[in-house]
Amino acid sequence: MSGRQFRVLISQVLNYLLDPKLCVGCGHSLQPLQYFCTGCMSLLDCVEPACKLCGLENQTTHSICPACLHQPPRWCKIIAPLIYHNFSRDLLIQLKFNENLYLANSLVSHLIKRFQLNNDYPEVLIPVPLHQNRFINRGYNQAYEIANILSRKLNIPIDAQALKRIRHTESQLGLSAHQRAKNILKAFKYESVTQYSHVAVVDDIITTGSTANEVTRTLHHAGVTKVEIWGLARVPN
Ligand SMILES: [Zn+2]
Ligand SMILES: [Zn+2]
Questions:
Q1: What is the whole-number distance in angstroms between the Cα of residue 57 and the centre of ligand 2?
Q2: Which domains does the chain have, with CATH numbers?
Q3: Are 28 and 48 in contact (CB under 8 A)?
Q4: Ligand 1 is a single-atom ion; what residues have CB below 5 A from it?
C-alpha cells in the first residue's frame, strides 16, 4: 500500500467515525468547513457557465443554450455541477462500483451551494432506481445515497418507493445516445400515493440524458408537471 493509499484509508475510517477532518481525495488535513483540500478542490471542475436545461457549458448571455432553445429537453431544469472528467470521474466510479459511499457525503457537501441556489425547491427528491437484480448484486444504489444526503442537507423529503425500474436494462456504458434511448425505453414505472407536482429526480452522473428523459416522460405521463434533474456531474459532449 502506498503512502497516499494509506492516508486515504485512514481518512475513510475517520470520516466514518467523525466529521470529515481529512481529505477523501488524498488524505491531507482539511481546513474547517472544507470537504476536499485546496489541491483536490482545484481538480473538481464545475461546468461554468452551464445551460439551465442541459447542464452543458453555455457561453451565450442567455441562460439556455442554442441547442436547448432549438430543441428543449422534457425536464424544466438540470443541476449537475461537476464536469465528469479526470478526478471527478475517478471519485464517481469509486462511488458507483466500489462501495465508497463516504464519497457521496464529501461530494454533496462540497457542491451543496449549487443546489441551495435553487429558490424554488421541489416537493420531493426521487432517486433513479436500480433494477432489483442489480441492486441485490451491488448492495446499494448510489443515486439513493446522494439523494438521501441532499434530503438531509436541504430538508426536502425523499421518496424512494414511487419510481421503480421494471425492466432490467443493459449497462448504458459504451452505447450511443440513440442506443441509450432505445435501451431505457419503458424501463420505469411510477406509482405514488402522494400526488406530487414538482419533483427532482436524483442520479449520480448525467451522461446523454436518456435516462433522465425516460424518467421525465414517465413522470409527466403520471401527472407530475415539473420535473428537475439533479446529479453530481455532467458528462461533456
Ligand atoms: Zn485532497
Ligand atoms: Zn442546453
A1: 8
A2: 1-42 (no CATH), 45-234 (3.40.50)
A3: no
A4: 23, 25-26, 37, 40
